[in-house]
Specification:
single chain, GIY-YIG endonuclease, two-stranded antiparallel ribbon, globular, 6 helices, alpha+beta, about 35% helix
């Protein structure tokens, strides 16, 4: 009878959460402008930006979208269900193209790198995108100015 009162507790295996990998990215808009941002999932974020950039097309067509295997249904107003999660600066500037990414150690480092890239001139950003100059060289160059 005493055995009936004893409950055996099994613990779930401990799985530490993986640290998020922060990425700084640059997107080229159809008009040639460059947009810089940070994220932990580049493909997801690019998808959100693309929906925002072509959101008016989605509303007019009344179609649902599929990005990387994820089906996004129209809401009751005929817009993609995830519309509005991308940057306002990219509205109406699609199609978008991911042209540069770099991994940062943590969110703080990603934010600092994003800020430094945003301070660069368009010419410097273009050199970074095409690989004529490395990010480290550009950041050192701006520190000395």
């Amino acid at each position: 009878m005493a055995a009936d009162r004893i409950r055996i507790m099994t613990a779930e295996p401990f799985e530490p959460k993986l640290k998020s990998c922060w990425t700084v990215y640059i997107i080229r808009c159809v008009d040639g402008s460059l947009y810089t941002g940070i994220t932990t999932d580049v493909q997801r974020r690019l998808g959100e930006h693309c929906i925002t950039a072509v959101g008016t097309v989605v509303a007019k067509c009344g179609r649902s979208l599929s990005i990387k295997g994820k089906h996004i249904e129209d809401d009751k107003h005929g817009r993609g269900g995830k519309r509005g999660r991308g940057a306002k600066a990219l509205r109406g500037k699609g199609p978008l193209k991911l042209v540069f990414t770099t991994v940062a150690a943590n969110r703080s480092a990603a934010l600092k790198t994003e800020y430094r890239i945003k301070q660069l001139s368009k010419l410097q950003k273009e050199k970074l995108v095409v690989g004529e100059i490395s990010l480290a060289e550009l950041l050192c160059e701006t520190e000395s100015e």
